[in-house]
Amino acid sequence: MGARIIPLREAYRVRERILEALADVLALGGPDRVTSAAVAARAGLDEALIRRTFGGLARLQTTFAQSEAFWPGVDELAGGDAYGLQGRSLGEVLSRFFRGYLRAMVARPWTLAVMAAEARGERGLLVGALAYVRERRALEFFEAALEGDPPPGLDLSAVILLMATAINAVGIRSLHERSLGGIALDSAAGWRRLEDALDLLLMGALDGALSCPQRPGGATPGKNEKKC
Fold this sequence. Notes:
It is built from ten helices and two strands, in the order H-H-H-H-H-H-H-H-H-E-E-H. It folds into two domains: 8-65, Arc Repressor Mutant, subunit A, CATH 1.10.10; 74-212, no CATH class. Strand 1 (179-180) and strand 2 (183-184) form a beta hairpin. The termini are far apart. Strands 1-2 form a two-stranded antiparallel ribbon. Helix content is 63%, strand content 2%. By secondary structure, it is mainly α.
């Protein structure tokens, strides 16, 4: 009897089932718990099927890490078309980016589990892949959304690093805490409060500061100049 040929549609369903099982194992136990046996058990499939479908655990994890299930694409980060943000204020562009970043992170508890492992100083294929794809997508976003260079005197990389670090910390803690600082992390209303704070910090403070640059020697504005 010849080898059984699996229909393409069935093969696709098996592939997606395995990838979903990997996400579940990650979310429940973190990257240290990801083994072929654990993924196969979660998917309800034979472990050998993972090898036949992906060529082994490393290639399975690489495939998952390269998908938007692991980290959002540029347009998801933008909440629409990233190129459509060109011409907006820098504060608004940054606010849209970090809103998308926050929403995407909360929607991916499996990725939060990898971020938690990264924060603990753990190493591994998925932790390394996360660092790479996160930086790559951020660069792609700002290349699409921003025209020209940042204003002189603004260290945009430092602003992005500080905001991302703060959001990462809140996201990681949301895995095990229902509230933080009086803000509910188990409700949509709590996350909206954080999004509103992003608008205030980035659109209010940053755009306000850029519209009122520091004058040399601390001089005050002239009679016909805008007072900040």
